[in-house]
Specification:
The chain is mainly β. It is built from 4 helices and 27 strands. The protein is globular.
Length: 406
């Protein structure tokens, strides 16, 4: 009996230790907050957060969410166990409150990858030169024979220059660098090939969410652009924000999401793209005048604690050059959600919008959400079985992603 009790105690001790370790490990090392926002760090009993500079204990398990960040700037903290044992360094960067211009215009995006993305494989003259290389779809080739690969032309040139000799390949997978080698095979056209299908660019159409006049930066989509073959987030080197021409609308219905069809073939560049993240596409808007943006349209970014269930509006463009406000209802607010872009559950209530689109359709991603004269967030998802319902991402998350340095 004593042995059983002893084993139970040991198991409980190990379980508690495991929970503590997980609680510490999965806490981010860096937080970006908007001035006036609460520092909501979920800690367990015995863990406390102390500022390095002042030595003041900012947060313990009994004061979650009570600390408000009123001073702009960066502060470094130490997470301690029982205020005795330092276990983790955490930095908090507080950015000032800002005003933005919600836009809601349809926009096109051209993304250029960092290296070339492997999207498929095929035999060359009955051979598979890539077979033992370890490369797979989703890998990004960044160097061949120590020469940088910026596009598909660079890759083809390096492969042909090999004259059939083995080439050294440096590639990225899950942000980790690795090297391998492949011996190219000559095809019937006397060209050397390695059997990999690659891509160096991608494009998409969505909605421009907001523009920050103070910095000249923009945010769009509320989610990232994924590769159509690998379904992974495209890691980009840079990109272009381009005008788009709306061609047609397909109305959404249960089980079949609608879409805004547009083309960017004749569009011209109005900005540069620097980041493609899970919470949106970001960059600098060089020609805000194209969207008829003015100072009178600026409004505060709404902190998530200020959002209320009830009436709100979205802005979107369904006809070229014609942005409109449409009524929605905010039904649920997921205050503690920072892991994905499903922060707000919304329902389309505007009769005109429902007649045109049936609800939320593809291409409306990024449509800004407005409540009580403040920018609340942006539309990100539609519920396939009910296109009148969908999700939006918090404005503060998009702003923080935009301000975060790669």
């Amino acid at each position: 009996m004593k042995n059983i009790i002893k084993k139970i105690v040991i198991i409980l001790f190990l379980l508690i230790t495991y929970i503590y370790v997980c609680n510490i490990v999965f806490l981010p090392n860096q937080y970006i907050l908007i001035q006036g926002e609460g520092l909501n760090i979920r800690t367990m009993a015995g863990l406390s957060l102390k500022e390095k500079k002042s030595g003041q204990t900012l947060q313990t398990v009994s004061s979650i969410g009570e600390a408000k960040t009123n001073e702009v700037g960066k502060a470094d903290f130490i997470l301690s166990l029982f205020k005795l044992f330092p276990v983790k360094n955490i930095s908090v960067n507080v950015i000032p409150k800002t005003t933005v211009v919600p836009v809601g215009s349809a926009i096109g995006m051209k993304l250029y990858t960092d290296g070339v993305l492997v999207v498929g494989m095929s035999e060359i003259e009955g051979k598979k030169p890539y077979e033992k290389s370890g490369l797979k779809e989703g890998d990004r080739i960044i160097e061949i024979n120590h020469n940088e690969i910026g596009n598909t032309n660079d890759l083809m040139q390096e492969v042909n220059n090999s004259k059939g000799n083995a080439i050294s390949i440096k590639y990225m997978r899950d942000e980790q660098t690795a090297t391998t080698s492949i011996t190219p095979v000559k095809n019937s056209n006397n060209q050397y090939k390695i059997g990999l299908w690659v891509r160096d660019a991608a494009a998409g159409v969505g909605t421009l969410s907001f523009y920050e006049p103070a910095s000249g930066m923009f945010a769009s989509l509320g989610h990232g652009i994924l590769d159509v073959d690998t379904a992974g987030l495209i890691k980009i080197e840079n990109g272009e924000l381009v005008t788009t021409n709306i061609l047609s609308l397909t109305k959404g219905q249960k089980g079949a999401p609608g879409e805004i069809r547009g083309t960017i073939e004749s569009g011209y560049t109005v900005g540069s793209i620097s980041k493609n993240t899970a919470f949106g596409v970001f960059g600098v808007l060089n020609k805000p005048s194209y969207f008829n943006i003015s100072a009178k349209d600026e409004m505060e970014v709404c902190l998530r604690e200020e959002i209320r269930q009830g009436k709100a509006q979205i802005i979107c463009e369904l006809e070229n050059g014609n942005r409109q406000y449409y009524d929605i209802e905010i039904q649920k607010i997921f205050l503690n959600n920072n892991k994905d872009n499903k922060s707000i559950l919304i329902k389309i209530t505007d009769k005109k919008l429902l007649e045109k689109t049936g609800g939320i359709i593809q291409g409306m991603s990024g449509a800004p959400i407005i409540q009580n004269g403040k920018f609340v967030g942006a539309v990100t998802h539609v519920l396939v079985n009910d296109p009148t319902m969908g999700y939006g991402v918090f404005a503060d998350i998009m702003l923080k992603q935009m301000k975060e340095v790669n």
